[in-house]
Amino acid sequence: MERTILTTIIITGPPGVGKTTLVRKICSNLRDKGHILRGFYTEEVRSEGIGQRIGFDVVTLDGKHGILSRENPIDKLRRPKVGKYSVFIQDFEDLTLPLLANKDSRPEPELLVIDEVGKMELLSKRFESAVEQIRKTSGSILYQVTKSNRNTLSTEITDLITMSLLVTK
């Protein structure tokens, strides 16, 4: 019997359940074990003072920030919208597409992290195409995050990735 090598872990769940927090914990656990990671996550941007959400940023795992969306962009340029947010497609592509292509001098990552493939991100057809290419490989596992399992999944997924990386080396 042929074993399928783990290539993709898909984490899904309702808004606010803790998916990004889970991904960040997994990344931290894997870095602590010496694994090479590349990718990005999204995070809310809140206004100063009242703390109301005004948009989202893209943050690479090596700490670079870029704008994904804003409620009322200062530059007033016309951009595609998702709900009340104007989406900065070019900024998003400039930051994320090089991470997916790996045409730079950094070592090949053991793990590529893409936290958030939603309506805003899919306004970029180039990003959508790059993600489709990545997902065409077999070996995907889907995790549904809930409030009852979100605290135990980080260890379970970290262990699964670590074992899979040991098998593929």
TrEMBL record:
SMART domains xref list: AAA
Pfam families to which the protein is assigned, alphabetical: NTPase_1
AAA+ ATPase domain: residues covered: 5-168
UniProt KW ATP-binding keyword: yes
Tree of life domain: Eukaryota
Keyword Ribonucleoprotein: no
Keywords of the record: ATP-binding, Hydrolase, Nucleotide-binding
InterPro entries, A to Z: AAA+_ATPase (IPR003593), Nuc-triphosphatase_THEP1 (IPR004948), P-loop_NTPase (IPR027417)
Annotated GO MF terms: ATP binding; ribonucleoside triphosphate phosphatase activity
Record-given protein name: AAA+ ATPase domain-containing protein
